[in-house]
Automatic annotation (TrEMBL):
Belongs to the cytochrome ubiquinol oxidase subunit 1 family. It comes from Rhodoglobus aureus. It comes from the Bacteria. It is a multi-pass membrane protein. It holds the Pfam family Cyt_bd_oxida_I. Keywords: Cell membrane, Electron transport, Heme, Iron, Membrane, Metal-binding, Transmembrane, Transmembrane helix, Transport. Residues 501-529 are annotated as: Disordered. This is Cytochrome ubiquinol oxidase subunit I. The chain crosses the membrane at residues 16-36, 57-80, 100-117, 129-150, 180-202, 239-260, 371-392, 404-426, 465-482.
C-alpha cells in the first residue's frame, strides 16, 4: 500500500488510456477537414460522404478524449500536491493557455461545425472545422510545453527552493518541447491515417464479400451497386478507395516525419538525459555499438548480468552525435556522475516519508526503456510498411477477398497506437527517479529538479489512492466498451450510418419515405434532415 507506487500506477493508467484518444483526434481532424475542403471546392458528393462518415468517428473519439482528459488535472491536486506546488508557477501559464485559448477554440468551433450543417454558408462552416482542428493542434503544443519542462527545465530561477518562471519565451521555445511536439504531431498523423486505412480496407472487402464489386481478368475492379443496402452504390466504392489512398500516403509521410523528428529528439535526450538513453540501449559500458538484442535478468537493477547478443558498431554514436566514432558513456560510467551531482541518498526530510535517507537508484527499469524504445520503432515501421503495401494492392481499385488480409488490415490500426504508447511510456518512465529532470549541461538551469519520492501528496494514504485507482479503472473500462461499440456500430453501418438521408441501416427501410404522422419513424423526413441525426 505504498502511496507513491500506487499514485504512479494511477497516473500511468489514466494517462495512457487518455492518450489512446489524443493522437486519433489530432491525426484524424486534418483528414476530415481536407475532405470537407474538397467537397466545398468540387461539389462532388463523394467528398461529402467521406466528411460525414469520418467526421462521425472523429466526434465519438473527441468526446471520449475530453471525458477521460478531465481526470488528469484533478490528479495533480489529489495525489501529487507537492509536485503541483513545485511546478505550479511554471505550469500555470501553458496550461492556462491550453484551457482558455486552445481548448476554447477547439470546443466552441467544433460545436458550430456539428450544428452548422445546412445552417451556415459552406465556406464558413468549413472554416469552423479548420479552426477546431487547429485548436487541437495548438492544445497539444501547450501540453507538450508543460511536459517538456519536466524533461528539461528552462526559463526559471530558484526562489526559496521553488522554480519561478522569469522567461515565458524560453519555456515556450524549449528545444525539448519543439522536438517532442513535432514528433507527437507526426505520430498522431500516422495514427489517424492508419485508422482510415484499416476501416477503408474493411469497407472495400465488405463490398467484395457481398458480391457488389468484382474483378476482371486483369485483376481490375468492376464496380457494382446494391440498391437493397443503404449507401452501397457506385459512389460508395469511390468513397473508400479515395479514403484508403489518401490515408496510406499520409501514413507513410507521417512515419517519415516521425523518423526525422525522432532522430532530433534522441540526440537531445543523449545530451539532456544520458542515463535514460544508455538504459534504452542497454549500454552498460562506454562504446559506440547499438544493441539489436541484449538479454539479462528481469527486474535487475544493475548492469552486471546484461549481455549483448547482437550489436552494430558505430550506430549508437550516429544516433547520439551524427558520427560513427564518438564514444558514448555507458550506465556504469554515468551512475557515479549522477551520484556526485545529486547525492547517493534521498534527503533526510519528512517530505520523503519512509523513503527519507534511502539510497537512490538512478537506473530506470531497463526492460521498460530498452523494449519501449524498440517497440516504438518496430510498431511504427510495421504501420508504414502496411500503408505502402496497401498503396500497391489498391492500385487496381479494390482489395482482395482474403479474410486474413482484412483481419490484418484491422489489426494494423493498432500498430501506430502501440508506437505512440510505447514511446510515451519510455519517455516518462525513463526519467525516473526524477519527476522533474535535472540538467547535466549548461543549456538548462542548474539545481532545478525534483525526485519523484518527494512529489506525492503527504496526506493521502495508499488505501485511498488504490480505491480511486480501482474506481477510475472501472469507469474507464466501461467508457472503452462504449466507445468501441459505438465505433463498431457506425463502421459497420458505413456511410449511411452518418447520413440518414441515404437510408437508415438499423430499423429503417430505405424504400420507405417515412410516416409523416410518426416523428419516431427512423425514415421520417424531419429526422432524416435533422442535424442532430449527424451529431448523435
Amino acid at each position: 500500500m505504498d502511496p507513491l507506487e500506487i499514485a504512479r500506477w494511477q497516473f500511468g493508467v489514466t494517462t495512457v488510456y487518455h492518450f489512446i484518444m489524443v493522437p486519433l483526434t489530432i491525426g484524424l481532424g486534418p483528414v476530415v477537414a481536407l475532405m470537407q475542403t474538397q467537397w466545398v471546392r468540387t461539389g462532388d458528393e463523394k467528398w461529402l460522404r467521406m466528411t460525414k462518415f469520418w467526421g462521425k468517428l472523429y466526434l465519438i473519439n473527441f468526446i471520449m478524449g475530453v471525458a477521460t482528459g478531465l481526470v488528469q488535472e484533478f490528479q495533480f491536486g489529489m495525489a501529487w500536491s507537492e509536485y503541483s506546488r513545485f511546478v505550479g508557477d511554471v505550469f500555470g501559464a501553458p496550461l492556462a493557455m491550453e484551457g482558455l485559448l486552445a481548448f476554447f477554440f477547439e470546443s466552441v468551433f467544433l460545436g458550430l461545425w456539428i450544428f452548422g450543417w445546412s445552417r451556415l454558408p459552406k465556406k464558413i462552416h468549413l472554416a469552423t472545422l479548420w479552426i477546431a482542428v487547429a485548436g487541437s493542434v495548438v492544445s497539444a503544443f501547450f501540453i507538450i510545453v508543460a511536459n517538456s519542462w519536466m524533461q528539461h527545465p528552462v526559463g526559471v530561477e530558484l526562489v526559496d527552493g521553488r522554480p519561478v518562471m522569469n522567461d515565458i519565451w524560453a519555456v515556450l521555445t524549449n528545444n525539448t518541447a519543439l522536438a517532442a511536439y513535432s514528433h507527437t504531431i507526426m505520430g498522431a498523423l500516422a495514427v489517424g491515417a492508419g485508422f482510415v486505412v484499416g476501416i477503408s480496407w474493411y469497407q472495400l472487402w465488405q463490398r467484395r464479400r457481398d458480391g457488389i464489386d468484382s474483378v476482371d481478368a486483369a485483376g481490375r475492379v468492376v464496380v457494382g451497386e446494391n440498391a437493397s443496402i443503404p449507401g452501397r452504390d457506385r459512389k460508395d466504392h469511390s468513397v473508400w478507395l479515395t479514403s484508403i489512398r489518401i490515408a496510406a500516403v499520409i501514413a507513410i509521410v507521417g512515419f517519415g516525419g516521425v523518423a526525422i523528428t525522432g532522430d532530433v529528439q534522441a540526440k537531445l535526450m543523449f545530451d539532456q538525459q544520458p542515463l535514460k538513453m544508455a538504459a534504452a540501449e542497454a549500454a552498460c559500458q562506454d562504446g559506440t555499438s547499438f544493441s539489436v538484442l541484449s538479454i539479462g535478468n528481469l527486474g535487475s537493477q544493475n548492469c552486471d548480468d546484461v549481455v549483448g547478443i547482437i550489436e552494430i558498431p558505430g550506430i549508437l554514436s550516429f544516433l547520439a552525435h551524427g558520427d560513427f566514432d564518438t564514444e558514448i558513456k555507458g550506465v556504469n560510467t554515468l551512475i557515479p556522475e549522477y551520484q556526485e551531482l545529486y547525492g547517493t541518498n534521498l534527503p533526510d526530510d519528512p517530505l520523503y516519508g519512509e523513503r527519507a535517507g534511502m539510497e537512490i537508484n538512478y537506473l530506470p527499469i531497463m526492460e521498460v526503456t530498452y523494449w519501449g524504445f524498440r517497440l516504438m520503432i518496430g510498431f511504427g515501421m510495421l504501420a508504414a510498411a502496411f500503408a505502402a503495401l496497401t498503396l500497391w494492392i489498391v492500385r487496381k481499385g479494390t482489395v482482395p477477398r482474403s479474410k486474413f488480409l482484412m483481419g490484418t488490415a484491422l489489426l494494423s490500426i493498432a500498430a501506430p497506437f502501440g508506437a505512440n504508447i510505447a514511446g510515451w511510456v519510455f519517455t516518462e518512465m525513463g526519467r525516473q527517479p526524477f519527476v522533474v529532470v535535472p540538467n547535466p549541461n549548461p543549456s538548462g538551469v542548474d539545481g532545478v529538479f525534483m525526485f519523484t519520492a518527494a512529489a506525492v501528496s503527504p496526506g493521502v494514504s495508499g488505501e485511498e489512492i488504490i480505491f480511486s485507482l480501482a474506481s477510475l479503472a472501472l469507469v474507464y473500462a466501461l467508457l472503452l466498451v462504449f466507445e468501441v461499440r459505438l465505433l463498431i456500430k457506425y463502421v459497420r453501418g458505413g456511410v449511411a450510418s452518418a447520413m440518414p438521408e441515404l437510408g437508415h441501416p438499423e430499423g429503417g427501410d430505405p424504400g420507405n419515405s417515412g410516416d409523416p404522422d410518426n416523428p419516431n419513424d427512423p425514415n421520417h423526413p424531419d429526422r432524416r434532415d435533422d442535424v442532430l441525426a449527424f451529431a448523435y
